[in-house]
Each structure stands twice: as structure tokens, then as C-alpha cells.
Amino acid sequence: MKMRKLTLEEERLLENFVTDVYGPVYFIHSLPEFIIPPINSKVSRRDTSWRLNILESLTDGDLNITDYIPKHNIPLEKAIQKAKEFHEKWVERFGHSSIAEQHLMHLCVEDVSRLLSGDIELMNRRPAFIEWSQRYQKPTRDKVVIPQELEEKPDLKEKFLKVWNTCYDAYEKLVEVLTNYLAYTEEKKEGESEEKFLNRISKIAFEDARYALILATKTSFAVALNALDLQDIVRKLFAHPTKEAKLLAERIVEQGEKIAPSTLRHLTPTPYQLEVNEKLKEIVNTLEFEEELAPSSEDVVLIDYTGKDTEFSPLDIVVAHILFTYSGKNFETVKEKVKRMAEEEKERIIKKAIEGIGEFDHLIEAFKSVRFKFQLKISEASWHQLLRHRTIVFDYSEPTIENGFVIPPNIEKANASDILVDAIKASEELFVELKEKLPQVSSYVVTNAHKRLVIMNADLWAFDHFANLRCTKEAQWDIRETSFKMLGLIREVAPQLAFFMARRKRA
């Protein structure tokens, strides 16, 4: 992200609110909570450091900086020492995690690989992330993480850089071709200026051209989390197979110590965390698998759901939970009642449960009683959006080239598929070599177009929220297609629980 040289006055101002004025990892602190979200939100669509956004907010009249600089002369050293002793006793010695949970922190990480950012966002489901977006911004050629492991393999490093440049050349060419194509095929909206029209089609071009980029492409993210969840993520970073992750963990600890000197403890990964993945990989590698049973050409498969092959359907289960909640009867009594109910009566209860529901409303808790499990084969571009849905549980394989790839429809229509395919082939050749010689680095050269296998396990409440966001016209085409396929499969097995979904309609 872009960071300029600051004036001495600007540096002194920022030092009040960030732990590092120039480094790629830092914490925001000492600002009112309501100010931080709008500062963070600018980043998905602007390639500027959060620190510059803070400066802008503090100096352009939006905020009166004098309101946030302490005016008192009260000595805080004694209070700080007492707090440190408290944390050391109750958090470090006795492990009272509820105290660490009360410590809210705002971490900013700039110029990390797209590969690692995705892994971090799945390390803990509770923190809230916001990320630099390839959908709205065009990365520059220098936005690439060169894995440190390659420094000891100069021949592989040279090949890595060649693949990066090949893929980036393809990206730039696709942006150009798609922009020209869309200029002739997209219609202007009513009242839309030429500048706004060009800006809109440029973003569509960025969105589709990014399928040529590899997972080593740099991104940046901000995350709001408590100290306990930060400890969990740091431990997992130290246990991560890449040097990039371990270096990031060290930087986070270094910066965190500046504002949380006694809450960032127990950061060493356990032997279990260090060993479990490799142990399981070794076991799997010794197994011989038969040919796929019932192979499917479909990228979206409903593999299981609550009530499958039982006498109690998904509809029965949700109705039972509604009756349990509002009747005060025990669950066995409720189940017997549901068994004797006519289908029309059960459907009437469901319709009453969602009567008047708006496009921004959530379902009641009873809908969490039913789960649907899908196997998905989706592009890395789509996966990076899907994993943001924190209430859904995912099992996922590592990035690979073995599941094929996606070509965006606009690229096909613009007769530019060869540009993308050539970039994909270059990445695949290096992937095969890295998989043999330096396997922990191979994932960095997988493209956004390559497909990943994912199991998505969502309760009906979470899926309703997901579909309400991802089945709109505004949603990116790739994840929207997957969302409608999943919704269609739910409608096949539980139509009474799906008719109200995807109700949010945005242009």
C-alpha cells in the first residue's frame, strides 16, 4: 500500500495513534472506536496506507485532534504498572482468558500475500476483517511477495519472477482488452457521465482480469480482535509452513508489545499445532484411493443435510424447534406433535415465522437447527470471498492446479481466453516443479482462476444471510453462480425452507 515520507509534524501526530509510522505491521490505538471503521473501509477501494487515511481524517476538518490528545497531567506510570501486574497474575499465571477477551485491538497488516491473508482469515472465526480489494483496484507490478524460501534457490527464484511477470503481463493485457470490449457492449446507465461509465467498466475489467494473478500477489487487511484471539492467530502463524507467516508473527508480537505488554503471552505454538498437519499428510500419503465413487462433473454438490434419509425432514426439524421455543414443552413431546401434523400446518408455521421479513432481517434462531453441507469446486477468486462468511464452517484443501480452472465469461466473449490460459499454463509448470523441490512455496504460484475443493457446512440461518448477500445482481458473478446453485439444491430437498431466500434485490 502507498505510504509517503511524512513531515516531522505528521510523524509526531501519527505516533499518538499507531505503533509504527512506517512499518508494514502496526496497531491503531487511542482513537474513538467509531472513527476506526470509516478509516478502515476506505482501504478496500483505495491503495493508501491506513496511516494516511488517519492523517486525512485528522487534518481535513473531519476530526478535531485536540479532542483526542490527553489534556490532564495525571501520572499514569503507577496505574500502568498495577495493570501489568494484574495481567501477569490473572492472564499469564492463572490463564483467565476472559480478561484478554476484554482487550480490543486494531491490527493493520500491509503487503502480505493473498495466500497468507486467506489462511489468516480462517485461523479464528471471531475477528472482523476488512481487506484491500482486487475487485475495485488494480495492483501494480511490484505488488508481489517473493517467498523468502526462494533466496536459497536462485534458479527457482528466477523462474518465480518470470511466472509473476508472465501472469502480470496477462493481467494488464486482459484489463486493456476487457475495457475496450465493455466500452462497446455495456450500456450507459441513465444520467451516467462518461467518467463514471469508464470507471464502472474499468472495475469490471479489474474483476475479471485478476483471474490471471497468482496468490503471491500482495494484499493488505485490517482486523479488529481481542487479545485472546490475537494470541491464537499468532500461535498459528508461528506453526504455519511458510517463512512469510513466521516473520509476520514476529512483527505482530513486536508491535503488540507496545500497547499490550502483558496480555500477549502464551504465543509459542504447542507441539500438537506444530505436528498435526504433517502427521495427517503422512498418513494420507500412505493410503491408496480407489477411483472416485460416483464422480460428478458438477462444481456444487449437496452431500448431506440435517434429516437426510430419516423420518424427520428439515421442515419437521425447524417446526419442532419453533414449537419447543414457544410452547414450553419438552422436545420429545414436541417431536410427537410434529409427527402428527399435516404438511399444510407445518408450512403455515414456517410462513408465520418469516411473515413480514425484510431484506435486511435475519431469521429466528430455530432456523439454525438445520444444516446443509456442500462440496464446492470453486475458483480461488470466489473462495477468497466465500471464506469471509464467518458463521459458516469450512473444510478446505490446499491451493492446487489439479481441479482445473475458471475462465470468466467476459474474457470468453472478448475472445481473450488464450491470454488467460497461457498465464495459467506458466503457473502450472512452475507449480509442478515447486511441489517437488520446495512444496511449501508451490501454493504461491496458483492463480485466482484455479479451483479449490471446499466443504461448506452452513445452518439455514447462516445460509439465508449468505444467499441474501451473494444472490444479488451486485454480487460478483462467480460467487453468485455458486450461490444460486446451492440455493437450487436446497429448494429441491426443502422447498418450504427456501422460498423466502435471496430476497435482497439490489441493482
UniProtKB/TrEMBL annotation:
MF-aspect GO terms: flavin adenine dinucleotide binding; NADPH binding; thymidylate synthase (FAD) activity; thymidylate synthase activity
GO biological process: dTMP biosynthetic process
Domain of life: Bacteria
Pfam families in the cross-refs: Thy1
Signal peptide location: none
Entry's transmembrane regions: none
CDD domains, per database record: ThyX
Gene3D superfamilies: 3.30.1360.170
InterPro entries: Thymidylate_synthase_ThyX, Thymidylate_synthase_ThyX_sf
UniProt-recorded name of the protein: Alternative thymidylate synthase
